Amino acid sequence: MKHYYAFNGDADGLCALQQLRLAEPVESSSATLVTGVKRDIKLLQHIEAAAGDTITVLDIALDQNRGDVLRLLDAGASVRYFDHHHAGELPQHPRFAPNIEEAADVCTSILVDRHLGGRHRAWAIAAAFGDNLARVGSAMAQAAGIDPRTTSTLEKLGTYLNYNAYGETVADLHFDPAELSALMQPFAEPLEFVERSEVYGRLAAGYEDDMGKARGLAPARQVPGATLLLLPDAPWARRAIGVLANELMHVQPDSALGILSPKMHGGFTVSVRVPAHSPVGAADFCRTFDSGGGRKLAGGINHLPELEVDRFVSSFEACFTHALGDAPR
Q: Which of 199, 207, 233, 260 measures 20 to 30 Å from 27, CA to CA?
């Protein structure tokens, strides 16, 4: 029997996997990790399972993997699914175990934390910070009796792990997420990982360098309620896109944000953030484009062809300028 773990390469996917592997140890020889950059979410297509195999899926949308879930179930495998993105219709099957919640104040690591009864909660707290749920992460840390200094370290760790996942290919990243997971696995506590592994220092240095460049960029377009930013075609910019989006939302919490990042072979990757009071969700807007999705406050488009850019810009400004015009401030 083989065990497969398909997980998003960001902080949420990594910390969800870390919790499960600490709580449910599996021999490395029988465990196969399937992951990639943050935008690489159709991961189940890479798995060829047989009867009796188990597959744990973490932080990738069921809506974009449903066909492969059904294929794997038909092959006789069991599929356990933790996620907080748009799911659509859930498969009805005795070997399918969903743990899916699309609320804006949860992430996959929090769902895993609940499943495990809080056995490795510090990793879930780091993930919450990394997934731009700072208030949730702070509340969880306070409830757990974690002091402010440690909480700050967990916030930085989550941010750095999340930052590492952004790129068009794994070559853009400082660490392949599969390698990063292996480096995290020996540490039961995040602080041990921070203090004893060189990974934290390398990610911190890369983060500061990339974000120093990103913070100097000016908007390409800006209208009341909607801001658009165009990044240069460079690895540092592709790495910075997610954290930059989150930072800009803190600076302008009442303005929707769209960031376009050129892809190496044409077209763009798009990150979208919307205010909490927006009547139009980021995922709902992004799903009007092929390869778009996400959740209520944060979404994206994996590939926006150049011919679609003008439609994206006009739709984005029309949707959010109008939608937010009468919203409470």
A: 199
Q: Write the CB contacts of 273 (distance below 8 Å, at least 6 apart in sequence).
A: 245, 246, 248, 249, 256, 257, 282, 297, 298
pLDDT tens, position by position, 251-302: 999 999 999 999 988 999 999 999 989 999 999 999 999 999 888 889 999 9
Nearest to 270 by CA among 235, 223, 305, 220: 305
In sequence order, what are the residues at sequence separation of 6 or more whose Cβ sits closer than 8 angstroms to the Cβ of residue 124?
15, 16, 19, 109, 110, 112, 113, 118, 140
Which long-range CB contacts under 8 A does 111-115 form with residues at least 24 apart? 111/16, 111/82, 111/83, 111/84, 112/16, 112/19, 112/20, 112/58, 112/82, 113/19, 115/82
Stated pTM of the model:
0.86
CA distance 183 to 198: 10
Q: Domain-by-domain residue ranges, the chain?
A: 3-206, 221-325
Given this chain, do its domains 3-206 and 221-325 carry the same CATH topology?
Answer: no
> What is d(CA 306, CA 267) in angstroms, rounded to the nearest whole number?
5
Give the DSSP letter string of 217-228.
Answer: ---SEEETTEEE
Rg of the chain, C-alpha, whole Å = 19
CATH 1.10.730.10 applies to domain 221-325: no
For the record, the structure tokens of 272 come out as 């979208």
**CB 161, CB 203: distance < 8 Å:** yes
